[in-house]
Amino acid sequence: MLIRAGVSLRRVRHIRPPLASFVRPVASGHLNSWNFSLTIENQEEKFVDDMKFLGGVLKSLLEARKPGVLDVVTQLRRPARTWRDPAFSDADKDKAFEELCRNVSRLSPEMMCDVTRALSHFLALANLAESRDQTRSLRQLYFEHGGAPDQSDALPAKLDSCAGTIEVIINEDGASAAKIFQALVKQQTEIVFTAHPTEVNRLELLKKHRDISELLAQRDAMSGGDSTAFERAQNERAIRRGVAAMWGSDVLRRRKPTPQEEAREGLAVLQTSLWDAVPSYMRRLDAVMLAQLQQRLPLDASPVVFASWMGGDRDGNPNVKSGTTREVVVTQRRQAALMYLRELSGLRLELSVKECTPALTALSGTEAAEPYKAVVEQLIARLRATVAWADAELQRLGATPDARPLALMISADGVAGQSAEPLLVVEELAVPLRVMHESLVASGYAELADGALVDVLRRVGAFGLQFAPLDLRQESTRHARAVHALCQQAGEHGYLSWTEDERVAWLSKELGSGRPLLRRGVFERLGELGVGAEENEVLQTVALTAELPPGSLKAYVISQATAASDVLAVELLMAEAGAVKPLPVAPLFETLDDLNNAPGILRQLFTTPGYAERTGRSQMVMVGYSDSAKDAGRIAAMWAQYESQEKMLEVAKECGFEISFFHGKGGTVGRGGNPEVYKAILAHPQGTIDGKFRVTEQGEMITRNFGDIDSAERAMDIFTAAVLRDQFLQRPVPTPEWRAAMAAMSACSCDFYRSVVREEPKFVPYFRAATPELELGSLNVGSRPAKRNPKGGVESLRAIPWIFAWAQTRLNLPAWLGIGKALEGALADGSGPVGKEELQRMYKDWPWFHTTIDLIEMLMAKSDRTIAKHYDDKLVTDKELLKLGAHLRERFEVTERSILSISGHSAPADDYPDLQRSLRARRHYIDVLNVIQVEALARLRAAEAAGATKGYDYVTLKDALLLTINGIATGMRNSG
């Protein structure tokens, strides 16, 4: 048994995975002076030791470089800690907060910068220590349940790990090992990395964090006594150098990154952690499957794969052109080839065996004494040719390739002088590797076959030749205008003025005709024939689907999709471009109306003549979480997403289509994120996942979940376990009464949310006065503009800065606004479809509703009305706007009471002890950063009003402000 006997798996809480907003507690006590030493209830000795050590390193550095900063930090932290201490009276707390604000008001701009840097770096180090402690705790589980001769301890015996999940399915669901095996080998989780600008740290700083994290792991390993004093001293010196490098680095981006730079940053995660994490995790999963299911993970199974929007997402980003996408594709292929070269260079030395099968002899093309080495050398030659091809392509595009790693490109014996074609199709790499594996096994060398060769095969399955194939994303009206341009060239006029039925009929006719709309050669010359620049750019982008090597692109996503013609238009454009194997076209439904209309749109698509034949009766649909929440409020959006997926699945079944959902979730709750990924996946409507789970991973969440090998392995395990469990779990069916309650609450919540955000004329002025929304653009965290329409209001603001701004003020308004209004009637007098008791029953028995309430409660635990009020007091001068702010904080209180009444908790998230301890330890640091941010905002806005924006103080104040934004995001471990 992996799980302790006598413990009901149904009652065991899930682990807080690395994907949680707060992974482990920093402390439940306090930091003593500036020594960063912690008092912790559980006395987790190694964690305490890490924190004391890291705090001491930072303190020593500051004493040497900025001694005055330590005194100021102490002056600020003392009242901040008093303000949070429940032992003090309310009057004493008020005085302490006033003292904190007064002390901050006396700081010079330069001291603001230094103090903020110090606090931010400490919070970053605290994050590293938390992650190390979380990994350490997870490792402890291996030993607690370890020692199994069948190696079933390769993964932790937890409900959100494959080891625990398989046992649950066998023991509680009664499924056979064979059935579980079949489900597991067929399922697939696809993680799609996006360049959404929520990672506030620069790549250089993230690398330093990663280096320190690795050194902490080494320090941990040395604590067992198997190290010399010299080795321990060298480790400490290396950590001190790393912290010094952190302090000396510029935390801020001084310019916006290009899309190519964003893609390189995403590629860095693939190279530095996932490249090794994937084969390592697959080995663990293979061992668990052998122990529990008596079968091994097939070499062609890929439970986790990756894709990317970095360089392919042009929705609202004029900086992403067709040439950008082409450059990113070629750059990634080049880097993948170099990484495979490194692996095959080692494999070449390992596979010196002579015995082989006839299939391998035929493949090697020779009677060489070392046939495996001969095949590897052929692949090395082709990979080198791939690098050369990529270099030529990049030079043609005007890009400068990075210098080739010399060791990988030096000719080796047997490889020098070989001429070869570049590897452009993944099977050309995978097939020879599989033949070698089969030959080694057949020749009696199974152990050798199971070594580095299997690791390369696992990488090929997860990364292919592209590392992470790109999705193309563009807004629907851009395609309509491009089709209109094609029509004009073909003598058809008025496409943009046609009705939806007319568009569908014409598009269907053209797609079914089997002939191109334009004469041969015209498509390539449209720019010369008077087609507008925007339309031509769309056409050039679509042409990539025909021109790039196979496997370079994964899907074509249509943002703001509202009609069946949006999908058919992209189909027609790809056909005109000559795409032999068109990409799957995924409409993105992202507003409340679009989600509600989506089932009808799909029905029209599925019944359009020829559509089933062209698509093979397979349809991908993307569900937008962040924009729908910004449009209608959190609860209305979540219910619309739930019902829409149910109804789209029903339509697909009726029409004989297989549907897969692509979930466009952000990292924060307000954008659809859920820290408890295992529970979140199991809360999806029954049958909507069915072994296929595609989801976006963005910004700071990429770093958090995949930034190091341990975290990446754990994240892959959680995703794999949840998708497996989903296939066997029978969820409670929501009753008609529950559905009626959700419909009523959704409508009430949406009406109230929109009455504030859309209809209240004072809301936008208040939002811009009380938050740093206008200043967020100076962070330079992304290549695209913060607004789709620079002149628009909140409706044109992207979801990320919308969430980011409210997170900075600690009000987190998008996550809860409208929910209290929806609940208070039912809770107060039982009005509405259900009363308090039924809502409590929904919370107890319906996983989706339970998860929804828990998420809102967790965000409220991370919120703070007093801090939000301080922003109003210092930054908002209009009395009417101040009244609105007070009203919103009152609504927060109403919502909090309503949520707690349903959950039965005495305080928000009081059953999340890790979160509570982490918050208690971090809050007074973040509080100081918030007060500094308010002071910096007030001074900057006063200077701007006076036209004094040229001096040193203004520039330094702006840096201080941006540093506080960075520090608060680091401390709260979320941004947008």
TrEMBL record:
Which coenzyme or cofactor does it need?
A: Mg(2+)
Entry annotated with the keyword Secreted? no
The record's listing under InterPro entries reads:
PEP_COase, PEP_COase_bac/pln-type, PEPCASE_His_AS, Pyrv/PenolPyrv_kinase-like_dom
Q: Which GO terms describe its cellular component?
A: cytosol
Keywords assigned by UniProt? Carbon dioxide fixation, Lyase, Magnesium
Tell me one GO biological process term: carbon fixation
Keyword Hydrolase (UniProt): no
Molecular function terms, GO-annotated: phosphoenolpyruvate carboxylase activity
Write down a Pfam family by its short name. Answer: PEPcase
Catalytic residues, per the record, are K630
> Which Enzyme Commission number(s) are on file for it?
4.1.1.31
Q: Which family does it belong to?
A: Belongs to the PEPCase type 1 family.
Task: Identify this protein by name.
Answer: phosphoenolpyruvate carboxylase
Mind giving the lineage of the organism this protein is from? Eukaryota, Sar, Alveolata, Dinophyceae, Peridiniales
